[in-house]
Amino acid sequence: MTSFHAAIVHPDRSTTYCGEVDEAHVATARAIALLDHTPRFVREHRNRPGSLFVLRDDGDLDVYEPVGVEAAPHTPHTPTGTGTGTGEAVLPATAELLSGASGTVWIPGAIRIGDGSIGGAMDTPGNPPRVTLHTTESPAGGRYLESLSSYLIEVSCEPQLVYCPVTDRVAQLGPLDESARALRNDGQRRTNREGKVNIQIEVLAYAKDPWTTGWDPAQKPGWGSVLAAARSWGVPDEFPAGPPAPYPGPDKPRSRSVWQNSGGYFGHCDVPGNDHGDPGALDTSKVLGGAGGGGAPPAAGDAFPGADRFGPGAVNEYVTRLGRMLVSRGGGRFYRVGPGPEWGTADRRATEAFQHAQGWTGSDADGIPGPTTWELLVTGRGNDIPDAADTGTPRISVAHLVAAAEADIPAPDGHTTHADEVRVVEDALVAEGLLDARYADGSYGTRTRDAYAAWQRSAAGGSYTGRAADGIPGLSSLQRLAARHGFTATP
Predict the structure, then answer these.
(1) 48-57, 188-197, 359-368, 429-438: segment of lowest average pLDDT
(2) Domain annotation covers residue 88
């Protein structure tokens, strides 16, 4: 009877080795994952028969490898050698810059998964830039984004980006100015390395059920950040090979001339040398940000609805409208999910960034819109919110957070110490679902301590227990939180 190494790859790519299990255990795991009501999904290894992955909606990836076939999967994955069916050599990652000489390299707000080493330099940088769309043929929602990304890394078939159309979350596995490894070669021509850039996107969806159905890009700032990154490289807003074909259905012609000489958006079904039919019959206008308003500012003359329409506890259509206007002015990175009617941390931070962009400080940049903020937004005037690369990544000191906890917890409610740094951490805890947004006030009180302790105990935070999960930040746990939420942790 075959034995299997069993391991769990966590969302932060740390791995827990669980020892050896027998065939009956693996058969049970497979059977459970195949039940309709179970939020798990089975994938086989592309190259190693008998190896099994179970994607989970909590972000973990269960790995089963036959003993004696491959090395045990209890060490973190390090890409080496060649990619599956691509002939792709793995080169060192580029410097971690948000922007390159020609466009965005790392998308602000995207979840970084893996070490970034997935490809190399483009073969034909003089050819037009393009985006290639795939579907994962797996569920969306939950934290499948993390488990599916881990699976793609494990089988050495990474795109640069993975996108969830349900949660509007974006994961980035490699820099946009280098190649991915999700396509087969076309003979000796390396399709992954075609063009100035070839930004490949795996969308959590099934090709037979197009993910653009019932999906409104105006409500999806995460997808907006993907479009903005593609446009920064000069990718045209067009599908030169025509709309992707319905799936299942007749195979589309895969024109080498169009693929090599035209820029824009392609489906996997359009790439020569490949035989996949994804991504299905997408609504191309929605893919390019249309058919939903695109977040354009509303017409001039709209009256300010009053300050009482905004702030903690506010739930109304003006909050939604504010969020959409802020997204259209560069604030999309603050929204992990689309703007909605319930006031939240993302609305405050995006408003504050817009106010700072006008040169305002103090109470004029408190994150609550007033008549002037509203008037600039509805008329489209004033300065846009600058990219994160222009403003600098926030630097959060562990020493400052510890000092804040020591001073704020015993003090009366609302006492603040290093409030700006504490609030960045609180916003990250809110985004993780560990802290109620009304307590993200810059005070490191008991609720913030308890939320941070929950982060330390979580798989993403490092599985700390006992005194190690006391709610007082250390550098390791803070660095892991920082990597997920766009700030830098310092001693």
Answers:
(1) 359-368
(2) no
Q: Which residue has the tokens 């008037």?
A: 375
Q: Which tokens go with 367?
A: 């994150």
Residues 57, 127 within the same domain: no
How many Å apart are CA 424 and CA 422, to the nearest integer? 5
Same domain, 125 and 153: yes
Q: What is the mean pLDDT of the chain?
A: 83
| Residues contacting residue 387 through CB under 8 Å, at least 6 positions apart | 98, 99, 108, 330
List pLDDT tens digits, range 303-318.
788 888 998 888 888 8
Contacts of 221 (CB under 8 A, 6+ apart): 168, 295, 327, 331, 332, 333, 334, 335, 338, 339
Q: Across residues 381-386, what is the average pLDDT?
A: 80
Q: Where are the beta strands (DSSP E) in 25-94?
A: 40-44, 52-56, 61-66
As a whole number of angstroms, the distance between CA 295 and CA 306 comes to 22
Run of H or E including 5: strand 3-9
The range of the structural domain enclosing residue 342 comes to: 307-391
- Over the stretch 55-105, which tens digit does the pLDDT of each residue have? 888 889 999 989 876 544 433 333 333 333 333 322 233 323 344 456 889
Verify that 274 and 325 share a domain, yes or no. no
At a CB cut-off of 8 Å and minimum separation 6, what does 70 contact? 48, 51
β-bridge partners, 171: 111, 162
Which one, of 103, 85, 69, 74, lies nearest residue 16 by Cα? 74
Q: For 312-331, what is the mean pLDDT?
A: 86
Answer yes or no: do 125 and 52 share one domain: no
pLDDT tens per residue across span 107-163: 988 999 999 999 999 999 999 999 999 999 988 998 999 999 999 999 999 999 999
Spatial separation of the C-alpha atoms in residues 364 and 32, rounded to whole Å: 56
Could you give the number of structural domains in the chain? Answer: 4
Place of tokens 């409208």: 321
DSSP 252: P
Together in a domain, 207 and 324 = no
Closest CA to 335 of 442, 226, 220: 220
Shared domain for 228 and 340, answered yes or no, is no
> Domain end: 338, 367, 391, which one?
391
Q: What pLDDT is recorded for position 207?
A: 94
Question: Is residue 85, in this structure, part of any structural domain at all?
Answer: no
Q: Same structural domain for residues 121 and 263?
A: yes
Same domain, yes or no: 43 and 172: no
